[in-house]
Amino acid sequence: MLTTSEERLALLRHQVREWAAEVRPFALEVDRDPSLATGLLHLPTVALASRVQIPPPYNDRPLSIKGEVFHVTGALERAVWCEEVAWGDLGIGLASPGASMCGVLVEALGSEAQKRRFYGDLLERPTWTMFALTEPHTGSDPASLGSTFSRSDTGGIRLDGTKRFVSNAVRARFGAVFARTGPGPYHIRAALVDTSLPGYHAEPIPTIGVRAAQLGAVTLESVELSEEHMLGSGLSSLRRGLWGWSRVLDVLRPTVAAMAVGLARAAYEYVCEHRAEPSREDAARLARMAHEIDAVRHLTLSAAAAVDRNQENGHLASVAKLRAARLAVSVTRAAPAFFGAGGRIEHPLLDKYARDALAFEFMEGSQNVQRLAVAGALTRGTLDPGAPVG
Ligand SMILES: Cc1cc2nc3c(=O)[nH]c(=O)nc-3n(C[C@H](O)[C@H](O)[C@H](O)COP(=O)(O)OP(=O)(O)OC[C@H]3O[C@@H](n4cnc5c(N)ncnc54)[C@H](O)[C@@H]3O)c2cc1C
User: Would you say the CB of residue 368 lies under 6 angstroms from ligand 1?
Assistant: First the structure.
């Protein structure tokens, strides 16, 4: 039995890193053909993704490492898991089955029956889920989304709309879809939608980064739902759609920062491993990189710990996400230069890392949106003015 949370986290990190190393050899192949991502269930981090991030009451098969049990539901444990998985390969990490964003929403808004069904299905067999919020013209402004829930001819609920950039939309078995029941932000609701229902259609969008995640464009045409699909039915309108969305972002933002740190580390370590006898100047540059990665990881873990203390503490995570996204872009851009002008061509993994890093600008809110969140927190006095704002 380990005594401190540091020892537990170190054990988790060590084991996930060992598992994640097994993913690396598949990174370029799946980048070329994202449809291969569903055939990687023999890899431990992909297979186990369905058994983590499920709250204890609904998970009787959590991870067990040397006798220690991990549900990976706290922000710190999620950050450690996601940093190491992204170090193995960010794209394959995002393309893995499991509760992911949808799971956090179900935890916040789901009824007891919805939670039992959702988490039970994930534990029964590896299942891909999705979280469909973004629309073609309302990415950073979800309060303006245009998809609708309306009364259907049969007395049920009819869902119509279009979504964009939805991770795993093509391979998901079910997931959360946001739409409005009327005008204004408080009429936004979310429903659990089975992707086999008539009227659901998803197509992959060609991307240059995190290609494995196969971001999808979703069309919803008269998808027939019932009240039992709606999330948050027993809650007040202030605590349903948009509140649920911001809860998901608050809980998961440290994990996005952690993924960016994991990607930066992968690029840095690749250079250290493959650049034989670096010049004194290069060695000094690598030392600065290592120092910066450590500093941003420390900031990210502090932000995760703050969220574990209080889920409303999402602003420090916005700072961490800003810093980590910038770190991932700068390290992955600088890494190929250690190998000369042809670095990106001769080292395809480094080329992929530089493309993947671009995703962090948009994942879980763009840089400017994070800055607005941080500025809002400063104005309200809920963020320490000494915090290292990006
Ligand atoms: C890898 C990846 C995975 C994703 N997964 C999902 C998913 O699973 N589900 C989902 O629903 N979405 C997902 N998204 C979409 C993501 O949430 C959106 O890309 C993001 O919200 C930004 O929206 P947008 O792309 O429409 O950009 P826009 O909102 O059009 O923003 C474009 C630019 O304008 C700036 N901008 C926008 N508003 C303001 C403002 N008020 N002030 C100043 N600047 C502003 C932004 O900072 C940005 O630089 C994913 C995106 C990526 C890259």
Answer: yes
How many angstroms does the Cα of residue 133 sit away from the middle of ligand 1? 10
Task: Compute, in degrees rounded to 10, the torsion defined by CA atoms 340, 292, 316, 89.
Answer: 50
Cα of 180 vs centre of ligand 1, distance in Å, is 19
Ligand 1 neighbour 81 (Cβ under 6 A): no
Query: How many angstroms is it from 68 CA to the middle of ligand 1?
Result: 38
Q: How far is the C-alpha of 65 from the C-alpha of 12, rounded, in Å?
A: 7
Q: Which domains does the chain have, with CATH numbers?
A: 5-110+119-124 (1.10.540), 129-236 (2.40.110.10), 241-380 (1.20.140.10)
Q: Ligand 1 centre from 190 Cα, in Å?
A: 19
- Of the residues 129, 138, 164, 165, which should be mutated to test ligand 1's pocket, given the most ligand atoms within 8 Å of the CB? 165
Strand partners, 202: 218
Residue type present at position 242: L
Look at the block and give the residue holding tokens 């799971």. Answer: 103
Distance 381 CA to ligand 1 centre (A): 26
Alpha-carbon torsion, ordered 254, 259, 264, 268, to 10 deg:
120
Average pLDDT of the chain, as a whole number: 92
Closest C-alpha to ligand 1, atom 24 = 139
Tokens describing residue 28? 């370029």
Nearest Cα residue to 114 out of 220, 257, 3, 232: 232
Q: What is the pLDDT of residues 99-134, one digit of tens each?
A: 999 999 999 999 999 999 999 999 999 999 999 999
Does ligand 1 come within 6 angstroms of the Cβ of 357?
Answer: no
Number of neighbouring beta carbons within 10 Å of residue 354 = 23
In contact, 251 and 128? CB cutoff 8 Å: no
pLDDT reported for residue 390 = 46
